[in-house]
Amino acid sequence: MRFSVWAPSARRVRVSVDAGVHEMTAGEGGWWHAEAEGINYAFLLDDSRDRLPDPRSRWQPHGVHQESRVYDHAEFEWTDDAWHGRQLPGGVVYELHVGTFTEGGTFDAAIDRLDHLVELGITHVELLPVNSFDGTAGWGYDGVLWGAVHQPYGGPDGFKRFVDAAHARGLAVVLDVVYNHLGPSGAYLDRFGPYFAGQNDWGPGLNLDGAGSDEVRRYVVDNALSWFRDFHVDALRLDAVHALLDRRAVHLLEQLAVETEALSSALNRPLTLIAESDLNDPKLVTPRERGGYGLHAQWSDDFHHVLHVKLTGETSGYYTDFAAQDALERVLREVFFHAGTWSSFRERTHGRPVDTRTVPGHRFLAYLQNHDQIGNRATGDRLSATVSPGRLACGAALLFCSPFTPMVFMGEEWAASTPWQFFASFPDPELAEAVRTGRRREFARHGWGEADVPDPMDPATVERSRLDWAEADAPGHREVLELYRTLIRLRREHPELAAPWVADLRVDTAPDGSWLVLHRGALRLAVNFGAGPVTLPLGATATLLSWGEAAVDSGAAELPPDSFVLVETR
């Protein structure tokens, strides 16, 4: 068996395989190689006695600080030969965290809930990061060995079983991956070579454009392609790509798009790249032939922010600008609220306009809630904790009747009462205390008392964040679940609702923003956010869906506060 590792500055490299230690031979480009037999292995650099896991490890059965284990992708018996993929346009995405999606917190336990997603009408199931991180419980964004699947979830075979089962049900799998930083515990990459270059808000950033960066970029791209090829994943959600500092003529994201397209052709199924970006720059999703990076989609925080303000009335921090009376209309018409305009939170102009005549709306994922916007609140409270069912329903109607790709966060579809809080489980006491105190200090600056902020290291925080599936059929929850099912079904049955061309959208609003009518072909969605009733002449010929005692009489809609109606005008 051949063992290889990139260590360009090392004078000597050995590999420990089971009970033996073997000298490695220097090859081209800083790579070292050795032939040995065994399954558990680690590398020793120069004269150090530290046994380091493989940076390209495929399996870490005993954690990120321990030796790696040989894993052969060819040994898994896939049953998805008939799966030919699923494109993102027209889809509905469901974001979940494996550890808190079910009581068991494993891939196999999650498989048992996939039929729920099918019945809901979901097409793409997105998993928060599943790569190895230190500890047992965490969000996954502190991963340090990107190619090894977190063992407490079920390891590499468990993830493959999940993907295989999802494909059997017609569900595409989206995987959240983090290439902008590494976690604070177990990040040994800098011991091997010039992987790091500076820091960002979350940890050490990668060297993408300096000396030795060719292999670092290869490290990233090879990892991404492996998820597609070896784990049969259908799409990757790229975390915080604005933190990928790259001054090369060909940005890492463009390189990744090029190689993903080539692999898609070879596999004969669609492979999708979805960015999370704070830049409000449509260049990410603009095709390469028009000067863009060629990614397929990106998250739209502006859609979230404007609806969060509309539903909750919160206007602090980055929500301040979204309190403008025309904010919701602008986002629906133009995608970005900040599009070369002043951002008071940033104290500068921000963003660039989207050419809605040429860039389809399906390239922007829209959502009322996601892991960030819930979990990074002090108490991890969902919208359902503070917003009435009627306002939640109005938000959901706008989400599924918009020209964007809708995304749902786990439990949102039944207005789950369980919070989703920030948690971790670093074994190192000093690191654990640093995370604990840092979290409390962060929210203390916003007026929260220490006792109000959950201890991220307390196992009870994880338990509070776990979904209670019994709620889904309970009064006050099952009605919301049926609403979500109906909205998704209507979006599928009426092509107008999924039509992606934002430039064709017509939006009528009250001068004070209290009501809104969204025109989608021959369909009209009328929503009343105001404190009093409103009558709107819609010319309706049939009612498809209503909420909150909204009624249609002689073509006009009578809307009480916090209600909506979806009608046809054919």
TrEMBL record:
GO molecular function: 4-alpha-D-(1->4)-alpha-D-glucanotrehalose trehalohydrolase activity
Main location: cytoplasm
Alphabetically ordered keywords of this record: Carbohydrate metabolism, Cytoplasm, Glycosidase, Hydrolase
Enzyme class (EC, first level): hydrolase
Binding-site positions, substrate: 237-242, 301-305, 371-376
Residue ranges of every copy of the Glycosyl hydrolase family 13 catalytic domain listed in the record: 95-491
SMART domains reported for this sequence: Aamy
GO cellular component, one term: cytoplasm
Cell location: Cytoplasm
EC number: 3.2.1.141
One Pfam family named in its UniProt record: Alpha-amylase
GO biological process: trehalose biosynthetic process
Catalytic activity: hydrolysis of (1->4)-alpha-D-glucosidic linkage in 4-alpha-D-[(1->4)-alpha-D-glucanosyl]n trehalose to yield trehalose and (1->4)-alpha-D-glucan
Positions bearing the site annotation: Transition state stabilizer: D372
Domain of life: Bacteria
InterPro entries: DUF3459, GH, GH13_cat_dom, Ig-like_fold, Ig_E-set, Trehalose_TreZ, Trehalose_TreZ_E-set_sf
Pathway the protein takes part in: Glycan biosynthesis; trehalose biosynthesis
Record-annotated active site: D239 (nucleophile), E276 (proton donor)
Family designation: Belongs to the glycosyl hydrolase 13 family.
Protein name (record): Malto-oligosyltrehalose trehalohydrolase
Biological source species: Amycolatopsis mongoliensis
